Amino acid sequence: MPYHAVRMEPPDPKHPLVSVVIPNHNYARFLPGCLGSIAAQRLGTRRIEVVFVDDASSDGSAELARELLSGMDLASGTVLELPRQGRPGPVRNAGLTLARGQALLTLDPDDELLPDFLPRCLEVLAAGADVAFADYLLEEGGGLRTVRLRAHHKLLLANQNTMPPTAVFSRRLWDRGARFRSATGYEDWDFWIQLALLRARFVHVAEPLYLYRMHGSNYSLRARQDDARSKARLVLDNAAFFPSWTLAWAKGVLHSAPGVDPLGRGIIPVLPEHAARCAVPCAAGG
C-alpha cells in the first residue's frame, strides 16, 4: 500500500518539511547557483533543511558551502566532510542518514531548482504520492531544451531509466531500507527500482521544474562506459522486479556468455521476445 502523505505542517527546525541532500566533489563553481535556487523556492525556507556532503573536494567547496548556507534562513544547514568515496551513492547515503525532513531530495550541485519545484512536488506528496518527479530543462553542449517525461509504469522502468535524477520522495521509503548502492554504475536507476519494490506510488508533475546540466564530468555520463555490466548487476540485485528471462540475460552478460546481446546503452530486455537473447534457456513465465 502507498505510504501516508506528507502533511504541510508549520515550520519546525527539528522536523523540517523537506531535506535537500547535496553530494559534492569539486563543484564549487556551481554552488552559488544551486544553493541560490533553493533559497528562491516559493516555499518558506524555514521549512527546508540542507545537508551538504563534500566528498574530499580540493577546490574549497566545503568552505564556500558553509559561507553560502550561513546566509540562508533555513530550518537547518549542515556541511559534512567525508574521506574520498569516489561515487555519489555513499555520499548521498551519508547525507540522507543525517536528514530529518518528512520528504527527501538528493540534488546534484551542478543542477538548479526552478522556484516552483519544491512547492509542486510537496503538493503531490501531500495528495498521497510517495515519489514526485517533474519534467526538466536539459543544458548540454551549449544548448537548452525541455525534456518531457512519461508517467511511471513498472515495465517502462524495468526496460530503461524513465526517472530523472532529481525527485522528491517520502522519508518512509528511506526508513524502510532503500539505499543508494555501488554495485552498479546506474545508482539512481537502482534506487528507483528499490522504491518501486517497496510499492511506492510515483506521480509525474508535467512541468519543467529544474535545470539539469549534462557535461563531461558528470558521474552519470562516466557510468555509461560500463553499461552492460551495470545493467546486469542492477537486474540481479533487484531480481523480484524482473522476469526470469531478464535474469538469465543478466547472468549471461556478467559471464560474457557467447551470443548474448547486451543491447543498446541503458536498455534492459523485459519482454518475452527478448528471451532469445538470454545466455541460458529462459522460462516461459516471469
Q: What keyword list fits this structure?
A:
286 residues, alpha/beta, Spore Coat Polysaccharide Biosynthesis Protein SpsA, Chain A, 2 domains, 21% strand, disordered C terminus
Supply the number of helical segments. Answer: 10
By CATH, the superfamily of the largest domain comes out as Spore Coat Polysaccharide Biosynthesis Protein SpsA, Chain A
Query: If classified by CATH, what would the architecture of the largest domain be?
Result: Alpha-Beta Complex
* Assigned CATH class of the largest domain: Alpha Beta
Instruction: Report strand %.
Output: 15-25%
The radius of gyration computed from the alpha-carbon positions, rounded to a whole number of angstroms, is 19 Å
Tally of discrete structural domains: 2
The rounded distance between the terminal residues' Cα atoms is: 22 Å
DSSP strand tally = 9
Shape: globular
* Helix coverage percent: 25-40%
**Mean pLDDT over the residues:** 90
Name the helix and strand elements from N-terminus to C-terminus, one letter apiece: EHEHEHEEHEEHEHHEHHH
Q: Might you state the CATH topology name of the largest domain?
A: Spore Coat Polysaccharide Biosynthesis Protein SpsA, Chain A
Describe this structure in words.
This protein has 286 residues and is α/β, with parallel strands linked by helices. It has two domains: 18-223, Alpha-Beta Complex (Spore Coat Polysaccharide Biosynthesis Protein SpsA, Chain A); 242-277, no CATH class. The chain is built from ten helices and nine strands. It has helices at residues 31-39, 61-70, 88-98, 117-126, 154-159, 171-175, 187-197, 219-223, 227-237, 244-254; strands spanning 18-24, 48-55, 76-82, 103-106, 112-113, 131-140, 143-147, 167-170, 202-214. Strands 1, 2, 3, 4, 5, 6, 7, 8 and 9 form a nine-stranded mixed β-sheet that branches. Helix 9 packs across helix 10 (244-254). The longest helix is centred in the first third of the chain and has 11 residues, at 88-98. The radius of gyration is 19 Å and the shape is globular. The two termini are 22 Å apart. 44% of the residues are buried. Residues 1-10 and 279-286 have low confidence and may be disordered.
